[in-house]
Amino acid sequence: MATDNKELLNSSKAPEPVGLYPHARRVGNLLFLSGVGPRERGSKAIPGVELDEEGNIRSYDIEKQCHSVFQNVRYILEDAGSSWGNLVDVTVFLTNMKDDFATYNKLYAEYFKDNQPCRTTVEINKLPTPIAIELKCIATIDTPAKG
Hints:
The protein is of the alpha+beta class. Helices cover 22% and strands 27% of the residues. It is globular. GO terms for molecular function: deaminase activity.
């Protein structure tokens, strides 16, 4: 995890950001994660997504995307010195609430059965890359700040 005096944190395991922002930023004992999607590090491919020649979504598997996005959140938390159990607030963005909410909600319940952070789920029209889910999270962090 690289850090500087602004407490900007980047994971060596989570996918590279698609813009000028860190994976997370620490403020006191809070860790704010930037939006996290299901891509895998080192690849533009998205688990469970099939694109047409123009880059439009032909089909996608919300279950694969959920597993991948939860894993990416875990990578960022752990690389920053926090943990899954320290999540206190999760905002979930879905691009298709009608078709995807039931699957996402079932998987969410499995991943969060031991820790129940506050949660908001909203449907949005589109995300910056051809993904169906993105998470925005806040967690606590108990390790001393660097710098």
